[in-house]
Amino acid sequence: MKKNIKTGIVLLALSTLTMTSCQKFLDVNTNPNVAQSATLKTLLPAAQLYVGTAVGVEMQVYGSFWAQYWTQNPGASQFHFLDQYAPGQDQFSTSWTNLYTAEENFYQLYKLADSQKSKQYMAIALLMQAYTFQVITDAWGDVPFKKALKAQYSDGNIVNPKYDSQLVVYNGILAYIDSANKLLSATDPVTPGSDDLIYGGVMNQWKKFSNTLKLKVYLRMSKVNPAAAQAGIAALYATSPAFIDAGDDAFIGYGYNSANKNPLYADEVGLGSVQNLIGSKTCIDSMNSNNDPRLNVFYEMASATSTFVGITQGNYQATPPYGTYSIPSTYVAGDAQAGGSTKAPVNLMTSYESLFLQAEASARGYANPGMDSSLFYKAITANFNYYSTQLTTATGTPTSTLLSTYLTGGGYWTTYPSTGTLIQKLRFIGTQKWFAMCGNQGFESWSECRRTGYPDFLIYSKSSIIGNSFPKRFLYPTSESTTNSSYPGLAPLTSKVWWDLL
């Protein structure tokens, strides 16, 4: 599996993969002194795990801080820079490297699958490239795209890839999806199975992934290029698409053995199991005010009071007694000292995200007009059902009862304005999506906060050193500024990405 991977000037070797969660696929009885050839069934899981590590660790934590689910525990100091809105370039190096390493492996997977006429592997490779490039460009803005992944001599030996605009990257993402769709129904002699960590090789689910990803891409363009977004969604719906629904959630599972921990929990253990993460008052207070039982899934009660209590975002100089505040739960891998965190999945796209996207498309009149209210409530239901076992375990009450009580209990955010304005509808859709993604899709939630402006009650961190501003992007890593001659210069943290027009 030894293969040089160069993006900009980053060099890695797949055979030296260090993520603990990869070991179930890499612990093979072969001579370690002999380089092994990459195969379809080794490239795919390795590449998917790189994505899981990027999305599940740094991007999960940074997104969850800046979407105000989590904040810094006053008793620790690991993430002061996030609450201060003062990260350095080096803080973004690992996620950049992991994502581009994944992209390189998906690219090599596609080429190898093409040489073996394995169209299903080709389709998965293209869809994962599309998903991963959207994560990359939504985090950093303009990024290497067309000339990226071309460092090998056979691909042109391009070691200083130029940066492409987000418009170019988004058009490329859509092209990846369209190419994948032509391959999804193929019957191949070699097909993916358990080596596909997301769907186990079930191509019907990958088709739903494809449709949902395309819908998300177009909706993210809805302000910067509304005509293209509307036309693209209309064309998508003209195919009678099936989207991700219950049982189709795209995630990577962990916890199979001691060497396959959730990557965030593995990181926490590596830091001595210090509880750096704590619940933000922004989210906890809002959920409390709506009697939201999902608090029992996303957070742990403060042991001293048996209630859910958060700390004001960035107020890490406060010194409340330990046990008087809530921490993120094991279900989102946020409890650094409880072994249950090892089993938390890393979510890529979920059924509730899919339904909220469909609700927004309907509310905007792009597709299925008049269905937005129904889709809104289906999305909330999907979120409850996704955590059904955890909710029942934590509360001792059937999830169906919890959901019914929540929806009929008069909470403000459960009363969808079905006859209201578009702005009013988008406010409810965006805020309920924010609740649903609490700590389990941190980066995606922060991206939606930037795009939609909802929820509209986020506060500036008490520790902010940039005044009344929010972070709007990740910083390019030091490796790019020092080794890529095409580096365009550092974009400040408050500089908006392409689709952020707020």
Describe this structure in words.
This protein has 19 helices and ten strands. By secondary structure, it is mainly alpha-helical. It has a two-stranded antiparallel sheet. A two-stranded antiparallel ribbon has the order 3-7. The longest helix is centred in the first third of the chain and has 23 residues, at 93-115. 45% of the residues lie in helices and 6% in strands. Mean pLDDT is 92; it is low at 1-35.
Can you lay out the helices and strands and say which pair or pack?
Elements (H helix, E strand, L loop, with lengths): L3 E4 L2 E4 L9 H4 L13 H17 L1 H9 L3 E3 L7 H4 L9 H23 L3 H22 L2 E2 L18 E2 L1 H16 L21 H18 L5 H12 L12 E3 L10 H8 L6 E3 L1 H9 L5 H4 E2 L26 E2 L17 E4 L1 H13 L8 H15 L1 H8 L3 H10 L13 H15 L5 H11 L25 H6 L19
Antiparallel strand pairs: 1-2, 3-7, 4-5, 6-10, 8-9
Name some characteristics of this structure.
502 residues, mainly alpha, Serine Threonine Protein Phosphatase 5, Tetratricopeptide repeat, two-stranded antiparallel sheet, two-stranded antiparallel ribbon, 19 helices, 10 strands, 45% helix, 6% strand, globular, disordered N terminus
